[in-house]
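Fill-in record for Intraflagellar transport protein 88 homolog isoform X3.
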Amino acid sequence: MMQNVHLAPETDEDDLYSGYNDYNPTYDTEELENDTAFQQAVRTSHGRRPPITAKIPSTAVTRPIATGYGSKTSLASSMGRPMTGAIQDGITRPMTAVRAAGFTKAALRGSAFDPLGQSRGPAPPLEAKNEDSPEEKIRQLEKKVNELVEESCIANSCGDLKLALEKAKDAGRKERVLVRQREQVTTPENINLDLTYSVLFNLASQYSANEMYAEALNTYQVIVKNKMFINAGRLKVNMGNIYLKQRNYSKAIKFYRMALDQIPSVHKEMRIKIMQNIGVTFIKTDRDKMKKAFQKLIAVPLEIDEDDKYISPSDDPHTNLVIEAIKNDHLRQMERERKAMAEKYIMTAAKLIAPVIETSFAVGYDWCVEVVKASQYVELANDLEINKAITYLRQKDFNQAVETLKMFEKKDSRVKSAAATNLSFLYYLENEFAQASSYADLAVNSDRYNPSALTNKGNTVFASGDYEKAAEFYKEALRNDSSCTEALYNIGLTYKRLNRLDEALDCFLKLHAILRNSAQVLYQIANVYELMEDPNQAIEWLMQLISIVPTDSRALSKLGELYDSEGDKSQAFQYYYESYRYFPSNIEVIEWLGAYYIDTQFCEKAIQYFERASLIQPTQVKWQLMVASCFRRSGNYQKALDTYKEIHRKFPENVECLRFLVRLCTDIGLKEVQEYATKLKRLEKMKEIREQRIKSGRDSSGGSRSRREGSAGSDSGQNCSASSKGERLSAKLRALPGTNEPYESSSNKEIDASYVDPLGPQIERPKTAAKKRIDEDDFADEELDDLLPE
């Protein structure tokens, strides 16, 4: 066996890769064409190797084969088949490999390890640019075009639209020169389409920014029609925007839809924005349609006779008799009805479209006024101007409203009366009663039968305290217009001030029959019943009130007060608590709830209410004393002591706080008791000295003393008029440990001051009187919509 084993020669031990480049000549494929045995094997019908026969010896038989070391050894496969390249019966087997893999020995011999190729020396110098070559000129021109496009965009972002357009035009000129040079040097396929697209798109954008819409559309058309620009169809959105600015709405919708068709469904956001543009365009289309429809409405002929027909041209008795006969016949009445209906439709249409047909309602009203002035309804222009002023009032722009109304001071009497009525209303809202009275007089003098003017005049007289005279103006307004609910409401308030409660109740009940769901009327009825000492009826009407406005905290607190006066503490607590939940800053409600919890022996729950009261009135020491008293009554003496110390730090001259500090320190056994006791004695002594000085001052001035006694008597009378609720609360709080000073009484108050004051002045509606007023109470928002003309 060892005769077939050949050891590696020891001559090349230092070269691990030697021998890989040596191979047997049998493996040489270059001589295969001259090898007859190989060519014969290829030409066989199956092209396969010679078949294995029984003559082939077993695997133990060896056959010579050449190795890489120059020796030949006879080897046989395990199947008895000769090895590749072996010679059998004079026939040489073809080789299946050409040369061995690996490094060549010759390449490594005699060379140093240099993986970075540093031995090759420096690179040769770069060739100098030829600036005169066409390619270099084209490259520099392309760079210049890009710079101009960037400068144009920067100028546009800085607001210099003119410079941006000049840069865009310059870029367009240079880009056309660049295209011609490229066509001369290279093939048309090498033209930079991206650069051409950016130049044209920027130029179109700058044209549009400078409102040169025709040029912008032409440039966009160049881009869109060029099929070589991919997705250029999306620019039809920009073209649609330009048509929209030009108010060519049909074309704008057309281009929006064309752009929408070219946007794939995957771009959902862009498609939604385009559809939004289509919707906006349809709305603007409606604006034009509204204008055209209004102009057609104005142009409708009434086919009625002029008023001059019914004026007698002579003193002929027969003619005068005929004119008197036809002046108010059925045909004349039909003419009046037709004219009134036409004016109503025109005014309603103008008020509807004016706020939406232009960029602002003022511009829209101006357009309607100009159209009306050029028609047969010239007298309606003044009414539209007044509606414009009322719209300013809706937007709380009082200065513009006053300026608009003052334009009518020199108009005819009817228009002057309407404008003066509204001016009186505005000045009354601003508490400028002198100006309000002046314009109210002007309105009444211009039109004595204007119920709104009379109502405003009554309001100014009411503000001066002359209730009887105010009632006369309200009655006159009702005689002129029995449906004037404002005058009826105000006369009810006037009767309340005059203590004529039956007449006031009658007015409010009549008003309730007209305005079934008016919160103000319901409250006034309940208040009148309360003044008439009928709490059950007052509660019933207040229950109707909170069914309309369930979140009104003052109505809820008033219900709690009435139930408390009736002795129903549970119901009173329910409504007081609801009032506190909706408005937790009412000090009267907080005081009642705190006293209620103390009365029911839940001092811990009363603490949160008195703490809130101390936050609302931080300078009132009584609330903080009540907090400390609640801590002490609940057994938390340490917390009570800390609270009293904090109160003493804020109010060092409060005697009650020092008394309880001395008492607590004594009970607990603290050393600070002596310090607090000393401070208490000093304060009590100072209080005695102060009282003696006051007493001696009173004794030395008899006349002034008598005057002070009279004042004291009036004060005592005022205190006697305090509500029973306040007295009960004060009695409860005085009974608590920690206070010897009386608490402030809570007086009976209206649900809002505006319920007591007269009804606000009226806004004149064109052709009709105003229906509501603006109140500064909880129900003002509900009335505002009805106050202004519909």
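KEY FINDING: Strands lie at 87-88, 91-92.
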